[in-house]
Every structure is written in C-alpha cells, then in structure tokens.
Amino acid sequence: MRILVVNGPNLNMLGVRQPEIYGRETLADIEVLLRNRADQLGDVELAFVQSNHEGTLVDELQQHRDWDGVIMNAGAYTHTSVAIADAIAGLDIPVIEVHLSNVHKREAFRHHSYMSPVVWGQIVGFGFRGYMAALDLLYSRLTDGTPA
Ligand code: DHK
After folding, report:
1. Strand order across the 95-99 sheet
2. Active site residue: 99, 114, 131, 139, which one?
3. Nearest alpha carbon, ligand 1 atom 1
4. Is 99 a catalytic residue?
5. What are phi and psi of 50, to 5 degrees?
6. Mean pLDDT, the chain, as a whole number?
7. pLDDT digits (tens, 9 = 90+) for 61-103
8. Please, where are the H alpha helices in 64-147?
9. Which of 11, 87, 95, 145 could lock 61 by a disulfide, CB 3.0 to 4.6 Å apart?
10. Which domains does the chain have, with CATH numbers?
11. Is the pLDDT confidence value at 148 over 60?
12. Is residue 52 pLDDT above 80, yes or no?
C-alpha cells in the first residue's frame, strides 16, 4: 500500500511558526511518527512531499495517481486553489484533507475549503494527531473497506 503525504506552503516551518496554533512538532517529527505507525501497520510505503509552490503540488498529485491514497494539508492553498482541487478531483484514489488547527474557529477566510468537495473527508483541529488518524483511516479503507 503506497500513501503520499503532501504538505503545502509554510508547513516546512512547523515547530517554529506560530506553535500556539500549529504545535511544536516539526514536519520531520511528523514524518517519523507516521513512518513508525506505518511500520506497525505493515505493508505501508509512505512518501513525503512539501512545497511552497502550487504547481509543484499539482505535479506531485498527478505523478502519484497510481498510488493508493493521499494525506493532504494544502496549507493556505486549501482556501484559494482551484488548481489543486482539480488535481484531486482527477484522482481515482481516496484523499484525506488534514489541518493541524481548527480552521472553523479561525478567520472567516479559512472556513472555506476548495478541497472539501473532492476529498474523502477532512480532519481538522487535532494537531499532528490528525495525520496519524488519516493514516489509520486510509489503512482501514484500503485493507478491509471500512469505514464506508
Ligand atoms: C495550515 C495553514 O498553513 C493555513 O494556511 C491553513 C492549515 C490551516 C492547518 O491548520 O494545518 O489555514
């Protein structure tokens, strides 16, 4: 099972960028935690991509179209990018949208997601644990088809 983990703009700054909002874990910390969980699950290959550039995120989604699932935090592009939403809509694999912060408790411009109509589901507001939950949910769906 091959799962792509995509992080968008400014998420390379996790740990130092507004830790009261995004947490103290770095992106490298999250990668370690996810790799450890993937090892526990077994038969899970992970690839990690972070870019501050919209087109690169589109390229990566296209290039991994034959993988099995995607965990995606598009950062601020969540609220602006038709191009990334179109790239997700063009995939035939489940995508889970993750946000560290609870975007619905924040500024109004963060309440709308171009991703939400084209993803399997969203996890918001649980910090790095949202990525862990997303991995477990994809694993369940891809192994035994649950949750529906
Ligand atoms: C990350 C960002 O960089 C913001 O632009 C989003 C998201 C929220 C997060 O909570 O992970 O609005």
Report:
1. 45-50, 2-7, 69-73, 95-99, 121-124
2. 99
3. 75
4. yes
5. -130, 135
6. 97
7. 999 999 999 999 999 999 999 999 999 999 999 999 999 999 9
8. 82-89, 129-144
9. 87
10. 2-144 (3.40.50.9100)
11. no
12. yes
